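Exercise 7. Given the components listed, write out the predicted structure of the assembled complex. Treat all entries as one system.
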Amino acid sequence: TVGAVALDVQGRLAAATSTGGRAGKWPGRIGDSPLIGAGTWADERCAVSATGHGEYFIRAAVAHDIAARLAYAGQTLAEAADSVVHGTLPALGGSGGVIAVDADGRVAMPFNSAGMYRAMIDGTGRRELALYRDD
Amino acid sequence: MTIAFAVHGGAGPVQNAERDPERDTALRAGLAAALDAGYRILHEGGSALDAVTTAVALLEDDPLFNAGRGADFTLDGRVELEAAVMDGHSRAAGAVTGVSIARNPVRLARRVMEATPCVMLGFAAADAFARTEGLECEPPQYFFTEARWQALQREKARLADGPAGAGHG
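Answer.
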């Protein structure tokens, strides 16, 4: 699975996700990537793209849950993304992670698997690129 | 004004013993290319929607990543590609699933968002829409990579030894 999230100069947020699914998946199986609110979401507060075991991301409505935590609970992007990826998902048995950006240019990239291929340039210009947990 | 951009190329249970330095270098190069392409669009005043679409299309074209070319295979050895795009400003969204011919499913998802009243199109309808829209289409062999084919064979062997239904999500 691959994905991207962005904040542009006009303050607009967007997210995109694309995947081949899982090796040996059942023909006709649909994962979380194309399901708006599960693997992909963007609103006026944040944009989210997910990667991992899709069925769990669907059950947890991961991408929208992160956005909802910003809207209704007043959490920061990092708090919301961490709560879902390190709390909700593993409680259900799901592994994977997300990339997310908020309207202030903050970026969060939490994951609960051994690795997540990821890269970002946040609103301060800080650049990061890593593959594994210990990178 | 602030701009920000991030990309991912998938998550998984890769352990230290499985790491290949040459492959890691190529993965880093692919991620960096997607990051730089998207960020350049934003830096030049382009839209967040164009930035994410361009970056994801680049990763779809890279056979190292599980999307587009380089996608995993279904149990019967075909590709069924999925993609979505969403614009936070307008809440417009487009998605495709079960796509088998579009070189860049993310561009197809964006056309669903921009040119139809639908949010998602699937399978034969999505393939037909790709042709109607004149998007780049590819034959099945374009999506074949040896690494993904071997992954399917390993998964089939694992399923033969495991409980019924395991591994299908």
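Discussion: Chain A touches chain B through 78 residues (CB under 8 Å). Chain A has a mean pLDDT of 97.
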